[in-house]
Amino acid sequence: MSGPLEGVRIIEMTSVVLGPWACQILGDLGADVIKVEPPFGDSNRQLGPGRNPGMCALFITCNRNKRSVVLDLKQESGKAALLKMVETADVVVHNLRPPAIKRLGLEYDAVRKVNPQIIYCATYGYRADGPYSDKSAYDDSIQSASGIAMLKARAGADPSYLPVIVADKTTAMAVVYSITSALYHREKTGVGQEIEVPMFETMVNYVMAEHLYGRVFEPAAGDMGYARLLSPDRRPYETKDGYIAILPYLNKHWEIFCNAAGRPEFVEDERFASLSSRLKNIDEVYREVSVMVSTKTTREWLDILTPTPVPCMIVNTLEDLLEDPHLQATGFWKEYEHPTEGTLRLPDLPTRFSETPGSVRHLPPRLGEHSIEILRATGLTDDQIEEMIESGATKVAKEG
């Protein structure tokens, strides 16, 4: 077995991070992912360091377990080839805005005429029936629109973006669970369907799980915003020689930590005696913990707290993660020999299945690496494929 989604064929028409990362996860789980690229390729092929043009870092980390076919969907032969591929596909995924996909004549109603059981997933910035539907969307704009950028301002700092592509990758997870849910439904009923996965609504849902807070009630029972997360003092604590993450959250945690820090009186202090009182006085909690943590080294705290239930952890840099002993012990970092790009380091599949483990079957493809292979399998003759190459409706990867 090559994963729980073995036998599922996915046609991916996406670029950048959201769609490609989602489809990479589906490919890791065993799906046959056919990445349909325009003649110029996924824009992420040009982003980050690389050894060869079109095979840069941000493309490599989001596009394993895929085969690449180039199709110019503005040409009739390119569009016809795609629709022929749809006949034997299970899923179509695209991240074009509604007007763009309609201009191509590849909206859901057109695609399901070719394959009535198709699962058709459109992922873009905003729900198609709202006033923002025509807006372009990137991670920065969605972090702004969903309230994430202003959370720092609530904590007393300037508005800022999280330095990680959180909107794209969180929405990618929503794409994965939506497609797998639709596959399960079709398995039971035989019925395909259209799925819409918008970034904005996905991220507002994500933020409001904790920050709707007092406004979950009508009339309001309090303000919006989970106070513990919005304290300006919430950060890794500075020790004598570095930093550490410590969260004496539950009452038992608090008691153990205060005793270890030599401040047992804080256990009975009315400001800190219960979880609810600590939340009401969260800024004071963070400040007092900061003072207590500063009295010992990082190693001393780890030695004291690791045997206890108090959450504590080292504060890794990006570089530290490559040598992290846990990741090393679990074999998280993998090295592969790519035929043109040399040795690549890629993360392991984070989830494990006892019966149907996923695997890396295809390394990130060169642009058009599988064009001929896929078009032949679709039923096109070599003469038809050659005509498409000459017209620019498809292209093949350069050798070497």
Describe the structure in brief.
It contains 19 helices and eleven strands. It has 400 residues and is α/β, with parallel strands linked by helices. The strands form three sheets. It has a six-stranded parallel beta sheet, with helices on both faces. A three-stranded antiparallel beta sheet has the order 7-8-9, covered by helices on one side. A two-stranded antiparallel ribbon has the order 10-11.
Question: Largest sheet, order of strands side by side?
Answer: 3-2-1-4-5-6
Q: Which structural category fits the helices and strands?
A: alpha/beta
**What is the oligomer described by this structure?**
single chain
Helix content: 40-55%
Number of strands: 11
Gross morphology is elongated
| SSE sequence, one letter per element | EHEHEHEHHEHHHEHHEEHHHHHEHHEEHH
Radius of gyration: 25 Å
Major sheet: size, sense and barrel closure? 6 strands, parallel
Low-confidence segments: none
- Average per-residue pLDDT, rounded, comes to 96
User: How widely separated are the two ends?
Assistant: 32 Å
Strand content: 5-15%
The DSSP helix count reads 19
